[in-house]
Amino acid sequence: MYLSISSYRIIFKPPLMYNPNMLILGIETSCDETAVAIVEDGIHEIASVLASSADFSIETGGIVPEVAARKQLEFIIPVISKTLEQSHLENSQIDAIAVTVGPGLIGSLIVGVESAKALSFACNKPLIAVNHLIGHIYGNFVDSKKAVEFPALVLVVSGGHTDLVLMKGHGNFEYIGGTLDDAAGETFDKTARLLGISPYYGGAALSKVASECKESNPILKLPRPIMHSNNFDFSFSGLKTAVRTVALAKKFSFELIAKEFEEAIVEVLVFKTIKAAKKYDAKSILLGGGVSANRRLREVIEQESEKNGFNLHVPPLKLCADSAVYIASAGFFNQNKLELKDIQPNPSLGIADEIK
Predict the structure, then answer these.
(1) Does 6 appear as a known binding residue?
(2) Is 157 flagged in the annotation as binding?
(3) What is the tally of structural domains in the chain?
(4) Is 196 annotated to bind ligand?
(5) Is 44 known as a binding-site position?
(6) What order do you get walking across the sheet with 172-178 strand by strand?
(7) Mean pLDDT for the stretch of residues 110-136
(8) For residue 15, is it within any domain?
(9) Which GO terms describe its molecular function (predicted)?
(10) Are 232 and 174 in contact (CB under 8 A)?
(11) Same domain for 205 and 330
(12) Which residue in 175, 189, 207, 225 has the fewest CB atoms around it within 10 Å?
């Protein structure tokens, strides 16, 4: 059953506080995944369950928002139940609930937000609204072997976003720069399709092709868009156009083009990240987002961080993709006191936008 309590007037809301061994149940439904997790004290994963409709997306050649939302309606209650079962906890033992409110697909966000509201209301638990992009950052805090030192320069790089943020502390973020057009992940996927590597989820497939390419040719040199600009913004649409031009000329193999394309994006991302970290006197550099799983990006940013004296934090591969684990963690460290009626999905929420 789909429950909506947006129109209810909630008079009582339990106060939020940092209790020892605080358990937060996180809910993530911003795209085509249905994920629920329980995290203790923001840093210890207790349980995590994910149901995906990716197979349906492959059949249709991409994500169909309505199909994704309908599958999430089907999955959400069983996934919550399975997570509680996996953790050996009862509803009453959960201290608070955290839910992604944006950005994302509006239908998918509604499923997660309204389900979280219903659970919060039924169990009389506080509900914490979480920005999905901020959530990506907290993949670096869960079960980490080393503490993050602030200020930290954060690169969040995903299918829809490429952002540089200065993290001065929990709940204290300053936007530094971001993509002016296509995000890095989107450019990876479109280029993979253009080169005939993969029609869907192409970024990972392109990276695999690039890593296996042994040939080289100094003549092939793709542009590094606005790498030396006097700001920290990114622009990758021109790079995609350059790839198309080179591919149509048929002078180079698609494997070599893929390799040079990946080098171009990684070089721009790492150069601007290190430059920003120096300017803002960062002590740490953090990666987050789906593209942070890219092998070449992790390799180069590790080399450059070590060379320039920055402590680098990269999330485990399982926390690069959409996950309720880092939503629960972000909820712990960024608690807000919004009434249930004020917590609404926002598909266009930016990384620096305040949740109101």
Answers:
(1) no
(2) yes
(3) 2
(4) no
(5) no
(6) 172-178, 162-169, 152-157, 284-288, 311-313
(7) 98
(8) no
(9) iron ion binding; tRNA N(6)-L-threonylcarbamoyladenine synthase activity
(10) no
(11) no
(12) 175
